[in-house]
Amino acid sequence: MSVKLFVGGLAWGTDDRSLRSRFEEYGNVEDAVVIRDRDTGRSRGFGFVTYSSNEEAECAIQNMNEQEFDGRTIKVDRASERSSSSSSSRPSYNNGGGGYGGGGRGRGGGRGGGYGGGRGYNNRY
After folding, report:
1. What is the sign, positive or negative, of the torsion defined by CA atoms of 18, 23, 25, 28?
2. What is residue 46's predicted lDDT score, i.e. its pLDDT?
3. CA separation, residue 34 to residues 3, 56, 125 (Å)
4. What pLDDT does 81 receive?
5. Using CB atoms within 10 A of its CB, is residue 3 exposed (0-12), middle (13-18) or buried (19+)?
6. For each of the chain's 125 residues, which pLDDT tens digit applies?
7. Chain centroid offset of residue 91 CA
8. What CATH number does residue 70 fall under?
9. In this structure, is residue 63 part of a structural domain?
10. pLDDT of residue 82
11. Cβ–Cβ < 8 Å for 51, 64
């Protein structure tokens, strides 16, 4: 049974290879990945390491949590599963609206209800 660990506080320069190399000291690493920003490709400062057994994962947690790695103190713990329904963990704020191009037009309703809007050129104040 595979066990995935969360590794937080990674240095910006840490890559998949160095993460794998450091954690292989504690067992068979099936996968090691540093999470990167999809737009910039830069590290987001955390990653995941997957071990093939619970014993190896526990050994890594015991030996690596709160330890220095690439100049930073890292946090290592079991990764928690993402919930399938994010609505229960995040507030809804009346289902969106506002923002750039969003709904939420405020009091005036549709277009033209804001400052000076909705009036023709000849219909001045």
Report:
1. negative
2. 98
3. 17, 20, 60
4. 82
5. buried
6. 899 999 999 999 999 999 999 999 999 999 999 999 999 999 999 999 999 999 999 999 999 999 999 999 999 999 998 766 544 444 444 555 555 555 555 555 555 555 555 555 565 55
7. 17
8. 3.30.70.330
9. yes
10. 75
11. no
6, 26 contact by CB (below 8 A): no
Rounded to whole angstroms, how far apart are CA atoms 59 and 42?
Answer: 29
| Domain membership of residue 52 as a residue range | 3-76
The amino acid sitting at 9 is: G
Token look-up 């609206």 returns 97
DSSP state letters, the chain: --EEEEEES--TT--HHHHHHHHGGGS-EEEEEEEE-TTT--EEEEEEEEESSHHHHHHHHHHHTT-EETTEE-EEEEPPPPPS-GGGTS--TTT---STT-S---TT-STT-STTTT--TT---
Domains in the chain, number: 1
- Residue 31: both structure tokens together: 């996968």
